[in-house]
Structures are given as C-alpha cells and as structure tokens.
Amino acid sequence: MTNIVITGCSTGIGLETAKYLKGRMIKVYPTARKIEDVQLLKSQGFEHAMYLDVTDSKSIQDVIDKVLQIDGKIDVWFNNAGYGQLGAVEDLTTTSLREQFETNVIGLHEATRLILKVMKKQGYGKIIQHSSILGLVSLPYRGAYNASKYAVEGLTDTLRLELKNSEIYPVLLNTGPIKSNFRKNALKTLNKLDLENSDNREYYQKAQKGNIKKVPFSLEAEAVASVVHKIILAPKPQPRYYITKASYLLGYAKKVLSTSILDKILLKI
Fold it and tell me: Is 83 a catalytic residue?
C-alpha cells in the first residue's frame, strides 16, 4: 500500500487531505506540532498520527525513523505545514520575518533534505511542496508570506533540476483561496506588529473587523486533497499544479502581462 507523511494536519488542508486519502486506501501518517492535536487525530481513526514540528529537526527525523520502522519505505512526503504573517513590509519586524521563514522555508527545507536521503536510498519518491499562487505573484500586506513562498518556489525548481535523472519527483502546489482557518490564524499574527504607530493602521483595523475584500473563486480544502491524490497515483507527476481558478488566471497573467498591468490587477484583489 502506498504511504504518505503529511505535515501540518491539525486543521485545514492537512487534516482534510489526510481524511480524503485515508478513505481511498492510502496509508496516511498525519503529523501535528501540538500533542493535543496528535491525540485528536488518533481519536479520528489515524492510529499512526505523530508529533512533528518542522522547526525541530529531531522531530522530523523521529517521524521518518518511525515510518521506516513500520513500513520500510516512504512513498510520498507532503510539506504542508505553514502559516501566513500579515503586515506591510515597513511594519514587519526582523523577528516576525525570521519566524515566517523558519516555518515556511527552513522547516520545509530541513524536511526535504532529510526525506531525500531516504528516497535516494530506496530509489524513488515524491515530495509535494505546498507553495501558493503567492509564490508567483504578490499581494500587498503579505510581504513575509509572499517572500517565503517565492523561496519555496526557488528551492523546489532547483531541486527538480538536480533530480532530473532520478525517480524522485519534487512537485509544487500553487494553491489559491481555500476555505480554512488560514486567514483567521493569519489575522492573529498582526499582534506581533506595532499597529498603533503604523501608517497602515486603517487597513489593519478593517482586517481585524473582517472588512476586507472577500477573495473570489474560493474552494473547499478537498480541492487540494484531490490533487494530492492525483499526484500519488501518477507514475510521473507534473512539476506544478494550479489549484483554484484564481491560480490559473493569475499564473497565466504573470506570464503574459507587463509588470505594471499585473500590479493594477493585484491591487484590486
């Protein structure tokens, strides 16, 4: 049976993907960084749920070792864990930017580096990197998150070239707006900023009150789960998958429009 390790399964895309795959005869190893969330996963029937914090290299290696002890292989690794730090670039502290990168980039890279050792030894594997359409285009007040996803794009594009003669496939997911707690959790990150003395405080106040534009073309988390399933089943998956109509449209716009015209579109979103 094909198996998969998924990071960041406490809620949202990670949890829904775990549920979706479990119902389709895929052996799922869901992970979470809080012990109470691991217990909750186990109560939902995920007997192999494990603790994993992507900022803790030892916890990543412990999960790898445990899965290998049980199955002797790891077919697919889904680097899903991450969060979004809100805030204008001028308001981002060095600490908040560093924390964003520690989870979204450094943690993802460490997991990738460690699982590569396993997949090279076994001669095959798929590494799914959860990027975003914001790894290709940028939106205002999301500078830290944009930058982190741009970094994921660069690392994964490079890795794909370096593994071109192998049976190991790095795959990028460029997700668009997905219905989850992601935005709700992102709003909490504003507490790390000095809002009162910011020139952008009007935007922050609107955001906290929920008075910002709703993102069109939003889909349920199952849209991501179904693509992950497709990747698992594909002998040779595509290097990139756009998820949601917004991702397709903006990805195409990035290729064909001038920067100034694209900026005008992005400022209206």
Answer: no
Q: How many domains does the chain have?
A: 1
Specify the CATH number for the domain of residue 44.
3.40.50.720
In the chain, pLDDT over 70 holds for what percent of residues?
97
Print the domain residue range for 171: 3-266
d(CA 49, CA 35) in angstroms, rounded, equals 10
- Report if pTM > 0.90: yes
pLDDT of residue 208: 86
Q: Out of 20, 29, 141, 145, pick the active-site residue.
A: 145
pLDDT tens, position by position, 71-83: 999 999 999 999 9
